[in-house]
Specification:
Shape: elongated
Distance between the termini: 62 Å
Number of helices: 19
Helix content: 40-55%
Structural class: mainly alpha
Number of strands: 3
Strand content: under 5%
Order of helices and strands: HHHHHHHHHHHHHHHHHEEHEH
Radius of gyration: 25 Å
């Protein structure tokens, strides 16, 4: 906990107990826990003026002013729309807010030392501690665990001094992260902050860290850790998250990432071509993400030649290929049924040489199913 925040919290509790008691009901606002909703209660000047209700019970104007000054010091982002969300261990951080209110560690909280120990033992090859935290039957504790882990691994990219990685980074831990991703229920359609998405971003920061700290590692070393996740789409997702942050990379790290991508592409290309030849009987998990990885690899020209050859030999049709360039959108709370589809016509044209136009977010309300044949039917209207 932050000493200054703790002193100010104690001052509020003793000097203005009614104000302190109102903080819990305003947690989301004060911590900016839900950014979209935050903008709804800001006025045009960017000030959260309706937070004045926290001090309306104070009779003296001087007391109201003093209490607001303290609140503004503790929760600056809540009083200024342009302010960043608080860093870990501050009162204004949603994962630590309840500690300051209770001035102890609440029963449902997780000690920072528990996260530290779990990461340390995982980096040494024992995943039991981190597994217990991330797969806790209490969903709130499970999500709190991944949130606290990710705090120690800021998203890759140019980092400020306050955003340095504070957790261990090695191949063992990357392998465990990938294994956990593969075992995690694919809940990305249930929550806007799903566990599997958070795990993928964590794994990407681990991979990024290794690419910078140990770019000389062999292709087989990186592959061994990444292949702990057997789900091809999820594994490619981690690699592509890392790829999308490449602008900050050193030349050595970029070269190492290119090797990782090329190695994955070598495994992927024959399976992708087999999928096309299998037509409607192919694995329906085949996604555009696989083509995006190949486009970023040294296998892209070979992919285009193989598809042109397959079309000429009638091993598959342009509709079979187009079906792979359909993507789906899901809404929170709809775990199985997409709400809309898109077609990446420009990318399809680049891969096949066949003119096509793109379509974004077309409702799938009337679709009878989401099979490859249905995707082919949908994409056919955009392909010449």
């Amino acid at each position: 906990m932050n000493e200054v925040d703790l002193i100010l919290a104690t001052f509020l509790r003793v000097q203005f107990p009614d104000v302190f008691a109102k903080l819990q009901s305003s947690k989301d606002r004060l911590t900016r826990a839900h950014q979209p909703q935050f903008s709804n209660y800001l006025n045009n000047s960017g000030k959260a003026s309706d937070l004045d209700f926290l001090v309306t019970g104070l009779e003296l104007a001087e007391d109201r002013e003093d209490a607001l000054t303290v609140l503004n010091t503790i929760f600056p982002a809540a009083f200024n729309n342009n302010g960043p969300r608080a860093v870990a261990r501050r009162f204004a951080h949603p994962d630590y807010f309840d500690r300051y209110l209770a001035q102890t560690i609440p029963d449902n909280d997780i000690r920072d030392s528990s996260i530290t120990e779990a990461l340390k033992t995982a980096a040494n090859g024992n995943d039991q501690g981190i597994r217990d935290l991330l797969f806790d039957q209490n969903v709130d504790r499970s999500m709190l665990a991944i949130s606290k882990i990710r705090e120690r691994y800021p998203d890759h990219g140019p980092k400020k001094k306050t955003e340095a990685t504070t957790g261990p980074v090695n191949l063992e831990l990357l392998g465990i992260a990938m294994k956990l991703i593969g075992e995690c229920r694919n809940d990305h359609r249930v929550s806007l902050t799903s566990k599997i998405d958070q795990l993928c971003y964590w794994a990407a920061t681990l991979l990024d860290g290794l690419l910078h700290s140990s770019p000389e590692l062999s292709d087989s070393a990186f592959s061994e850790s990444l292949l702990k996740c057997s789900d091809t789409n999820l594994r490619i997702g981690v690699i592509m998250i890392t790829k999308h942050g490449h602008s900050h990379m050193t030349q050595e790290a970029q070269t190492a990432l290119d090797r990782v991508i090329n190695n994955e592409a070598n495994r992927l290309l024959p399976h992708l071509l087999d999928s096309l030849k299998n037509g409607d009987n192919a694995d329906e998990k085949s996604s555009i993400l696989r083509y995006e990885l190949l486009a970023a690899s040294n296998k892209f020209e070979e992919l285009k030649k193989e598809i042109a050859h397959g079309l000429k030999q009638q091993d598959f049709t342009k509709g079979d290929v187009a079906a792979r360039f359909v993507s789906f959108f899901y809404s929170a709370g709809s775990p199985d049924v997409p709400v809309a589809a898109s077609f990446s016509g420009d990318f399809f044209a680049e891969v096949t040489g066949i003119p096509a136009r793109s379509a974004d977010y077309v409702s799938t309300e009337d679709w009878p199913n989401f099979s490859i044949s249905q995707r082919r039917l949908f994409s056919s209207q955009f392909v010449e």
